[in-house]
Amino acid sequence: MIVRSIDIKKKICTLTVESSDDLWKLRRFISKGDRVTTRTSRVVKKEDEFSRPDKGERIKVYITVSVEQVFLDSTLERLRVRGKVVEASDDSVSKSGYHTFSITPGSTVSIFKEKWRDTDTKLLQSESENRYLLIAIDRREAGIGLLSGSHLSIVATIESGASGKAFGEKDITDYLEDVAEKASRFDENTRIVIAGPGNTKNVLANLLMRKGRRALLVDGFDMSGSDGVRTLIKFAGFKAIASDTTAVKLQSLVEEAVKRISTGDGRVAISLERVREAAYLGAVETCIVSDNVFESTKDEQLIVDTLNTVEQRGGRVYVADTTLEYGKHVSSFGGIIALLRYPIKAYL
């Protein structure tokens, strides 16, 4: 998340969303009664005698709404905000109406908060993480994925058209150039990691080097394509390179949670009710939620309040990507797991 401006005394900030993890932060940051300003589109119906009553003109406007509802749709990577229009840059937009708009990666919004909490400042001041572009490649197929925070998105899957050795060695120069060109589009702050069987990864790394981009190689990995990218996340060679990422930290945390559950260790909670109770007691050291947790409950605000309570009492909150194995584990436990500082009586 890019924080473009912030004035805590005036309780206002302007920021740009960069990733799905940022949408989660905004879901916790925006509260009922806050005022959110963004550039959006709105249909304005003309009222002249020749206009059709069912048609209107879609215009781009800056709208400020007083928030009444906030919904996170992780599947579509968007945050839906609904509220009463209090300001608009176009006079054709009624100030007495309501408007719903989507915040997605790339969106810039300004937010005025009715009440600014310490946890709000922490959410905005979270340290940015290194981003990794993962390439799992062999002679036939390459998968490219972007790992940002705890979220992995598959950027592209490219096929070379080359067959097995029985059909001869096809020239794959154009294929490698295509992969290198797509990898080079990402800024230099994004680290490139290449893995896969054989020598193809080395050839690609040399090609990127000639384009001015250095790549890190992972040996001993024998998968390619999008499945290879997803599997690479949990491979020891990659973990050694990216030990500072949330994704790698989450794997260890989820493994510890599963271990405590299987051994009857009381320092774990696995339902919203119990995590909420432990949070209010200040017992939660780490809380992990799956990015689809809102699908299992009708009360989003209850989850948001629980996560905010965890951090207000000194705990950490992480979001797990359910397209990855550790995220599926969290989802299977109801979408929320907490590692506790000490056992709570109810869990003994």
Any chance you could write out the topology, listing elements then pairs?
Elements: E1 2-7, E2 12-16, H1 20-29, E3 35-44, E4 57-73, E5 78-88, E6 98-103, E7 108-112, H2 118-124, E8 131-137, E9 141-148, E10 151-159, H3 173-184, E11 190-195, H4 200-210, E12 215-218, H5 225-232, H6 236-241, H7 246-263, E13 268-269, H8 272-280, E14 284-290, H9 300-312, E15 316-320, H10 325-332, E16 336-340
Parallel strand pairs: 8-11, 11-12, 14-15
Antiparallel strand pairs: 1-2, 2-7, 3-4, 3-7, 4-5, 5-6, 8-9, 9-10, 13-16, 14-16
What does this protein structure show overall?
The protein is of the alpha+beta class. It has three domains: 123 residues, Roll (SH3 type barrels); 111 residues, Nucleotidyltransferase, domain 5 (2-Layer Sandwich), CATH 3.30.420; 102 residues, Ribosomal protein L30/S12 (60s Ribosomal Protein L30, Chain: A, 2-Layer Sandwich). The strands form three sheets. Strands 1-2-7-3-4-5-6 form a seven-stranded antiparallel β-sheet. Strands 10-9-8-11-12 form a five-stranded mixed β-sheet. A hairpin with a 4-residue loop joins strand 1 and strand 2. The longest helix is centred in the C-terminal third of the chain and has 18 residues.
